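User: Can you predict the 3D structure of Methyltransferase domain-containing protein? Sequence below.
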Amino acid sequence: MRRASSVLDVDTGGGELLASLAPLPQTIATEPYPPNLPVAAKRLAPLGVNVRPGRAEALPVPDAHVDLVLNRHGALDAAEIARVLRPGGVFLTQQVGGRNDIEFNEALGMLPADPDTHSLTTVTVALESAGLVVEVALEEFPRVRYLDVGAVAYQLRLVPWQVPGFDVATPGDRLREIHDIIERAGSFTVHDHRFLIQARKP
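Assistant: Sure. Here are the predicted structure tokens for Methyltransferase domain-containing protein:
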């Protein structure tokens, strides 16, 4: 960050992570979700950040405009990243992979259509196809243990896209099965799916 003269943060959310990196160079933050924009602007404007509405597939930034693109858990368009980076610029991202907490889906009988469409491999290939050179590529599946079924229900309510169509208000027998697993084994274990990539534009 200290070596970058200009930064773009894609899908900044409420701007919490970007604000934690202050002091910042000349920085643009984009966010596609309208309710987040005033939250991000309130947090980031005092730090000199230009907060703009914008989607990952059509970034509101000129060609070859920034030295560093950040993206934490946001939508990712490899061609757009390559377009806005200056030669020698760096892209750094942490992503949630398609197999994130897939044990929930398995237990509830609602598997995603193709959990491998968003992975370290697929994103690396996309970035390289866009002309970037991948310098760092790391993937982890950290374990998370749930000690009661109430915590499971809360998590599924918090992230409804994990098991689309599942209603914790009318769970049927599937949630009871998770409860039984916790009673027998002491916990229900899922694995997060995270990957980190650093890539450079030649």
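The beta strands are 6-10, 26-31, 50-53, 66-72, 85-96, 133-140, 143-146, 188-191, 194-200. The radius of gyration is 19 Å.
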